[in-house]
Amino acid sequence: MEAMTDTQGAEPTGRSARKHQDILAAATEVFLQKGYLGASMDEIAARAAVSKQTVYKHFADKEALFNAIVLGTIDRVTVGIDQAPTRHDPDPADLETRLRAQARALIASIMQPDVLQVRRLIIAEAARFPELGTTWYETGFQRGLASLASFLGDLAEQDSLTIDDPAVAANHLAGLVLWVPVNRAMFCGKHDCFTKKELNDFADGGVDTFLAAYGVKAGGRQRR
Amino acid sequence: MEAMTDTQGAEPTGRSARKHQDILAAATEVFLQKGYLGASMDEIAARAAVSKQTVYKHFADKEALFNAIVLGTIDRVTVGIDQAPTRHDPDPADLETRLRAQARALIASIMQPDVLQVRRLIIAEAARFPELGTTWYETGFQRGLASLASFLGDLAEQDSLTIDDPAVAANHLAGLVLWVPVNRAMFCGKHDCFTKKELNDFADGGVDTFLAAYGVKAGGRQRR
Questions:
Q1: Taking Cα atoms as reference points, which of A133, A134, A140, A119 lies closest to residue A189?
Q2: Are the beta carbons of A179 and A203 closer than 8 angstroms?
Q3: Average of per-residue pLDDT across A197-202
Q4: Which of A31-45, B92-106, B125-139, B165-179 is predicted most confidently?
Q5: Interchain CB contact of A216 with B (< 8 Å)
Q6: Does the beta carbon of B137 lie under 8 angstroms from any beta carbon of chain A?
Q7: Which pLDDT tens digit goes with each residue over B46-65?
Q8: Residue A103 CA to chain centroid, in angstroms?
Q9: What is the rounded CA–CA span in Å between residue B167 and residue B136?
Q10: Measured between alpha carbons, how far is A209 from B173 in angstroms, rounded to an integer?
Q11: What is the distance between the alpha carbons of residues B122 and A166, in angstroms, rounded to a whole number?
């Protein structure tokens, strides 16, 4: 965090933190519009309404800025998934409510406009920056799935779900809920193309099918 | 198709068609490496080992070339989905075999390296070319889902599956099968990161869960 230290020693932390966020937001926009190669620190500074020196005070170079955007977004998404309402409810009575709350938190985390922007940026630059894309996949995408798997594994231990492999079940729940809305957002270039109710409907519909396949009440899972 | 006509009237159609494909392949690579804005017709011509005049003989401008790449890819993917083995088999006896063949055709179509490249390109450029991304979504992504829905609707009519809404069931089958492999390919920047067996395993695992939820034998669908 040394790069964040105010070398002039005068600016209050709150203002420096705000500038830090302004630079990250401006850089995300410029990267998306110009691509990583076409983006310049000059333009990012202008967009953030700070001097180029201030940008470099916060981030050593363009790559450090790109990394900070990606890693910060991973944190926000995984916190959103981990902290779903009722996730840590010890009472397994209302399985459907708990699953819906988890699925709604999942889709709400990923469908945040700025998260979708970063997702698009990583996909756009993955051929040039395979390490960064792999970091996103392993510490973001897979961490989210692991968090879901842990939740589903707990429900299976409580005899609420019939699950052989929580990791596979987590992949399936995520796919049921996210496939259509995330792809529509990625392809159509709009990041606010669904209402909250529409997102909840995707979550609930995915949970219905998940419960029909994995729910104990639905007769258990008919593995072949 | 006027732009494809050989104005010199000497070149054989086969050679012209081959050049057409070479230009499309070269342009896809250059667009991915440089982004649409950074790509030049000069570089595309050099990569395709043809003259710039030849490029313009086949494609009026850079945008026409980009459009041709996208639309050509849509055709290939949807043909792959529509022509799955056993899809048009009138005998519903082996439901699981038919669903697996369809799911394997779906994943094989989308996970072709050059299809993944075009998918990445559209996502990268969607903010700049929302019309093109929307065309891909509507005539590619949704057409694929509609084709799946038609197949699933037929199976429901044969009493092999319990499906209220074939469109929702198609979304769910696609998500179950594709969520993890497509995202891994998109983020990691590698287009050949799975073996055929691994892809078939994603297809089969998705079909198992789909059948557990929607299969008549599995007790039918327990809608709440």
A1: A119
A2: no
A3: 96
A4: B165-179
A5: no
A6: yes
A7: 999 999 999 999 999 999 99
A8: 13
A9: 18
A10: 10
A11: 33
Question: Which of B126, B180, B205 shows the shortest C-beta gap to A187?
Answer: B126
Provide the pLDDT for residue B223.
40
Residue A44 corresponds to which amino acid?
I
Residue A12 has pLDDT above 60, yes or no: no
Residues whose CB falls within 8 Å of the CB of residue B131, separated by 6 or more in sequence, listed in order: none
This complex has an ipTM of 0.85
Please give the biggest Cα pair distance in chain A. Answer: 68
Higher pLDDT, A166 or B118: A166
- How far is B108 from A4, CA to CA, in rounded Å? 47
State what percent of residues in chain A have pLDDT above 90: 54
Decide: pTM greater than 0.80.
yes
Strand-pairing partners, residue A215, are A161
Contact list, A178 vs chain B (CB under 8 Å)? 175, 179
pLDDT on residue A91: 66
B3 vs B195: CA distance, rounded Å: 39
Instruction: Name the residue type at position A134.
Output: T
**Given CB atoms, is A139 within the 8 Å cutoff of chain B?**
no
Q: Does A198 have pLDDT greater than 50?
A: yes
Residues in chain B: 224
Q: Is-contact A199 A104, C-beta < 8 A?
A: yes
B162-201 residues touching A, CB cutoff 8 A: 168, 171-172, 174-180, 183-184, 186-190
CB-CB contact of A111 with A199 (8 Å): yes
Is residue A159 a contact partner of residue A153, using CB atoms and an 8 Å limit? no
Separation CA A90–CA A157 (nearest Å):
12
Return d(Cα B162, Cα B156) in angstroms, integer.
6
**Nearest of B93, B101, B219 to residue B151 by alpha carbon:** B101
Tokens, residue A181: 């809305």
Residues of B in contact with A221 (CB under 8 A): 209, 212
Token readout for B43 is 């570089």
Structure tokens at A65: 């800025």
**What distance in Å separates the CA atoms of residue B37 and residue A207, rounded to the nearest whole number?**
42
Distance (Å) of CA A95 to CA A143, A148, A200, B15, B176:
23, 14, 17, 63, 21
Tokens of A112: 């945040």
Question: A119 to chain B, minimum CA–CA distance in Å?
Answer: 8
Nearest to A82 by CA among A149, A157, A2: A149
Establish if B132 touches chain A: CB-CB under 8 angstroms: no
Six-digit token string for B18: 């081959």
- Cα A79 versus chain centre, distance: 9
